[in-house]
Write a structure and sequence with these properties.
binds S-adenosylmethionine; 7-stranded mixed sheet; globular; 7 strands; alpha/beta
Length: 206
């Protein structure tokens, strides 16, 4: 099966991406909706979530991605691999993650990962960056009492900016980490490590 071809970047501020999604009904997408939920935001082709879902059948994995063809392909691969604990949603997380998660039960979201979000280097494109205060508040609202958020990037100024937004939220506490706590690396992480470039990581808990 050839790789699905997509644009390298899409502008999350473009009218096409400013849509209001239907709230996710986890009882319709997971075989056991009561399992702890891991949300991977900006999951691209979703290979991290797929491998994690294979390794941890006692958790559910939800990948959120703005490039719709990757979502369709991810859900196809979940079906082909009989992964009843894996699902992907087409969503502009910066704009409407709150709507997607509106009906999420209060006691399921235990882990959030945000890995190598697009940096949008130019100052005039800063509003296109994924993390803002509203997104962080949405995560805090849905995270369980012991829930954790893991963020990583290879872009130094973006690390500073994103970690700063999380640090500014008084409901979150930063936990010191020295390495990636997950046993699976994302495609971007593998590419960065192959070039031996630095990776900036942070973890927050409620
Ligand atoms: C550089 S890629 C990293 C992909 C993957 N997390 C990894 O580490 O390999 C960033 C991903 O975030 C997605 N993305 C960017 N803005 C988004 C948004 N507002 N909502 C959801 N996904 C977004 C992009 O389409 C892309 O797939």
């Amino acid at each position: 099966m050839p790789r699905v071809r997509v644009h390298q970047h899409v502008n999350p501020l473009a009218p096409f991406y400013r849509f209001t999604p239907q709230p996710i009904e986890i009882e319709k997408v997971f075989a056991d909706p009561g399992l702890p939920l891991h949300l991977d935001i900006g999951c691209a082709r979703g290979r991290f979530a797929l491998k994690m879902a294979q390794m941890f059948p006692e958790q559910n994995f939800l990948g959120v991605e703005i490039r719709e063809p990757l979502v369709a392909e991810g859900n196809r691969l979940a079906r082909v691999n009989n992964l009843v604990n894996l699902h992907y949603e087409f969503n502009n997380a910066t704009y409407a993650l709150d709507k997607l998660l509106e009906n999420l039960p209060a006691d399921v979201l235990h882990t959030v990962t945000i890995q190598f979000p697009d940096p949008w280097y130019k100052k005039k494109h800063a509003k296109r960056r994924m993390i803002n205060g509203t997104l962080v508040e949405t995560l805090v609202e849905h995270l369980t009492a012991t829930g954790k958020i893991f963020i990583q990037t290879d872009v130094d100024f973006l690390a500073e900016e994103m970690f700063g937004i999380f640090r500014n939220n008084s409901s979150l506490r930063e936990i010191e980490i020295s390495e990636n706590p997950f046993p699976v690396k994302t495609e971007r992480e593998i590419a960065v490590e192959e070039k031996a470039l630095p990776i900036y990581r942070a973890m927050f808990e409620k």
